[in-house]
Each structure stands twice: as C-alpha cells, then as structure tokens.
Amino acid sequence: MPALTPQQVQQIAHLARLELTEEEKQRYAEQISAVLDYMQILNEVNTDDVAETCQVTGLEDVTREDEVVECDKETRQMLLDAFPEKKGNLLKVKGVFES
Amino acid sequence: MNLNELTITKARTGLDRKEFSSVELTTTCLDRIKKRNQEINAFITVTEELAMEEAKKADELIAKKKQQPLTGIPYGVKDAICVKGVRSTGGARILDNYAPPFDATVIAKIRAQGAVLLGKQNCDAFGHGASNENSMYGPVKNPHDLSKVAGGSSGGSAAAVADHMCLFSIAEDTGGSIRLPSAFCGIVGLRPSYGRNSRYGIMPMASSLDTVGPMGKTVEDVALLQEIMQGRDVRDATTVEGAKLKKIKQNYTKLDKIKIGIPREYFELEGLDKEVREIIETKIKRLVLSEAEGLKDQKIEVIDVSLPHTKYAIAVYYIIVPAEDSSNLGRLDGLRYGVLTEHKNLYEAYAKSRAQGFPEEVKRRIMIGTYALSAGYYDAYYRKAQRVRTLIKQDFERAFEQVDVLVTPTAPYPAFGLGEKRDDILEMYLADVFEVPASVAGVPAISVPAGKTKAGLPVGLQVIGPRMGEEIILQVGQSI
After folding, report:
1. Is the preceding peptide bond at B22 cis, omega within 30 degrees of 0?
2. Is the pTM of this model over 0.90?
C-alpha cells in the first residue's frame, strides 16, 4: 500500500512538531515506507471476530481519590530549577498567539 | 577474587561478617568504572560522591545490625529511569540537564534498603533500539568483544554487570530491552509480568508494554531483586495487588515434575544461528537427561508446542510501540524541563528542541506512530495490530494449558558488530523476534546464560512463563 513521499513525511513531522532537513525527509520517506510495507503482513490474518487487546492485566475501573497533595519545598525548588526559561518563579514561554 | 566480582548474595555475607566494608566494595566498583568505562561506555553519569556517601551510611547501618538485603550493595540504573536529584537523560540530549525531582517507585524501594547508587547507565534513547547505537551518548561496547554491540536498549546496564562495574542493574524492558543485552553480555535479566512492578518514574515508551526489571549475575540475585521491586503502587494503576512471591529467595537446584514447551516456530526461524541453536538444544537435552546436578529424580517432560502467530509479532509490536511512543513523547517539548533550543516563536520552540534533542530512531518512531494513529489509518494499523495482539496472547494461553514454561533462544544470534545493522531498520527490529511475542502477551520471561560460541560470545536462553509465573521461570532458569 503506502509509499510515503517526502511531502507526506513533512506533513507528519509538522503534526508531530519535528523540524526536518530536506535530506531527512527524503531518507525517512524511504525508511518509513519500507517499515509500513512490512506491516502489510498483518493483512494475511483474519481478525473479523477478534476483539482488540488494549491491556493485559484484566483490571477494571482502577480509581483513587482525587486528592490535592501539597508539594514539599525541596520538590518545588527542583521543579523551578528545571525550567529552561523563567521570570521569578514563573515559567516563561513564547506567546501562543502571535501578534 | 576482587570484591566487585561478587554476587549480591556473596557480598551480603561478606559485609555482614565484616570481612569488608561497603566503602571498600564501592571503591572497587568505582575503580573498575574508572578503568573501563571510557572504552565500554556503560555509564553516562557516575555519581561517585553520592556513592561514597551512601556507602558510609550503609556501613553505619551494618554496624548497628540494621541492614536489609541490599544495604551497602553498589548498583547502577538505566538512564531512562528517574532517580531524584541525579541527571537522567534517557539517552537523549533533550534531557541532557534533567535531574528528576522524584525517584521512580522501584528506585525508592531499592534506595530505602540502603543500596549504593554508582550512576546512570547508557541506553538507546528512551529504550528505542536493540544495539544501544541509538544513544546520543555513543554506543556501549560488549565487554566480551569490544568490536561487538552490547545489545539494547539496556546495553549499559548489561555491560556494567558483565564487566563487574556494579553488582546489579535496574532496567526497563518493552520488547526485549532487558533480555537481549543480558543474552549478548552473558548475564541474567528478568522481564516481569506486565503490572507486577510499578512503572511510575520510568520514562514511558509504549505504556501497554513497558516493564521494569532486574539484571544481575545470578538467578538468585535477580529473584531477590524482583521480590523487593514488586507490588501494587497507587501511582501506577496497572499494578497488581497481592502478587507476593514465596520461596523466591531460595537457591533453586531442584525442579518438581515439570513440562517444558519448545515452540517450534522459534527453532524453525530462518536466520537462527546454527551455533546458538545447538547450544540451546544441548541445554534442553541435558535437562531432559537429568544430567544437570541435582536434577536426578525429577520428571522433566519436553513437549513440542506451536505458537502459530509468532511471525506477526514484530509487525504488531512496531505498530503499537511507535503509536504509543509518539503520544508519550509529546510531553518532551523543551519548555518545562530539559534543553530548550533557540527559537523565534512557540512552534519553533517545539520543532527545533525536538529536532536537536532526539536521535534519528526516536524521530522515525514518532513519525510512524503519528501516521499510524492519524485519521483514516487508525483502523488499518493500530486497531488491526491490537486485534492480532489478541491472537498472539491466545497462542500463549493455549500453550500454557499444555506446559509450565516455554524454552527458546533469547536472540537468534550472538552479539553482532558495531555498525553492522545500523542502516537496515527492519533488520534491527528483527533482532527482538524471540522476545517481542512474550512482551505483546504481557507474560514474564527471563534470559539466562546458556554458553558461549566458539568465538567466545555469550548465548542466552529464554524461559517464558504464564502471567505472574515468575517463580517457575526463575526455578527453571536457575536449574539451567
């Protein structure tokens, strides 16, 4: 079925927020097409009446109380220290809407 | 024998008898790392100061007779597992400066015992790989032959144990990441049943398949570690209550009456190395003939079984994994932690940080996953894979109605050359052909050393058990 073009690769990379070079687009188009081609082997299998396996534990409705837990000072500081850019104790990021 | 060459069990005895201190034991491990790590590249970060501090504390505990099984024992942790305050890159530059503010649950359990952390171990970035060549910190070399790969993704963790840089490692296995490097490096590695050990604090790859498990020098050590690591965790809703293991600490040499299944599809695989096949078959024959020590009176039956959907496992796996990967890796955007690349706007902040912080294989998987989950393709790929997954799971369920365990080679060949498979993506994916089916089915499996090839490379034997069947695979693994 699918032979991906470099343009399609670019579209997927855009959705996934990955910047690619022209050379990468070309190479990934070939490599991903080969992988997707291999996946066609699954079409040999009749799965008409087969349910999907989403998880293997057999557990159902695992819930817990939705409690607010205070963050201790040390952890808070570590989280703040991890911010790549900040203003005071606030995380600094570029605006979502560009003017 | 040098102290760093001891097993956990033997080191425990020595520490408790005051034959040596944890500071001495830790120093010999650190010396070994200094001598060998530059070449082998097993550790990305060595925590020497912390290790000496923890070793001193351990010696105090031992002096007060307050020790636990792991008090004072030096170990390493795969870099894709979070350790509080210790740089944890996951093998990718996007987390080059990341020091998690918390311990993974399994690490908290190990640390609570007073074990001594030596550092964080090299791995394929976020567990993506079978050769450890997808690490942005360079490949890990196999201690048995430096021109060969250590296997992946937990290559650093396996090489460090094999080269006696540490006594044990804690690592992660999604499709073979503990078992394959264990086989290639000649050590013991356990992938537990999915849900047996908490995944909280493990950098997620494919959430429906990820497990965290122990790697060590003996089955006995690995059994001890598994007992400490397991249990329900409110922070991981997939963990299972009441899975306490009995008898797991014992030194198994005897097996009760047991039925061993040999899945014919595994031994008929084109590309199975002749020497590997012979080594595994000889081991099985030895078991049957009860030639192995202490096995004289047991009744071991070997039964030919079929797992008919084996050949579809890799395709199922490489749809489910990239799909779940692409979703999980969305959290890495360089904004709240990690490395933020220079950018003009928010879009660039994401796109450039991810482009520079991820290696090729991570990018490929994100794209395969994004494609497979996108509108119009979901049914053809992800849903189809989830359905075939059911059939693979049923293969195992049927097999375990007939037999207690399955015995297979861990990998179709011994460690391959560095760079040998790098450019052939599918070839690399197929390295996990014997490990992925158990992963997809969620059942436990252990790799134990079975011998060496004429060239001196280790060969691993895999024992697969039914869900929550860790005890039986550890027993069989020990007797092999």
Report:
1. no
2. yes
